[in-house]
Design goal:
Shape: globular
Order of helices and strands: HHHEEE
Mean pLDDT: 81
Helix content: 25-40%
Strand order of the largest sheet: 1-2-3
Strand content: 25-35%
Number of helices: 3
Largest sheet: 3 strands, antiparallel
Number of strands: 3
Structural class: alpha+beta
Low-confidence stretches: none
Distance between the termini: 21 Å
Radius of gyration: 13 Å
Length: 90
């Protein structure tokens, strides 16, 4: 993960220092290792270029249960190989 905005860090109780250049699955001591989310992101890296309105329903340790809508877009440039832009809404 390259980084996130301040609202993400605050809402999900994630330390910004731990989001730089690591996979999203490792955030929050691994609580973001959600099988459906992992599968979706792997599919994006393997072929699909965009996903809109993907529903994620998960119980987070620090903030409780959240239902999120996820939009994801694969970046296709030499500088951004294997990168995905994620946006969440509740």
């Amino acid at each position: 993960m390259e980084g996130a905005n301040a609202a993400f860090y605050e809402h999900f109780k994630v330390d910004g220092e731990y989001t730089i250049n690591g996979p999203v699955y490792e955030l929050g001591n691994g609580e973001w290792d959600i099988p459906e989310l992992r599968d979706l992101l792997l599919k994006l890296l393997q072929g699909d270029s965009m996903v809109m309105g993907y529903r994620v329903d998960h119980e987070f340790q620090q903030i409780g249960r959240r239902v999120l809508l996820l939009n994801a877009h694969r970046l296709d440039t030499a500088q951004n190989a294997n990168s995905i832009v994620l946006t969440f809404s509740r």
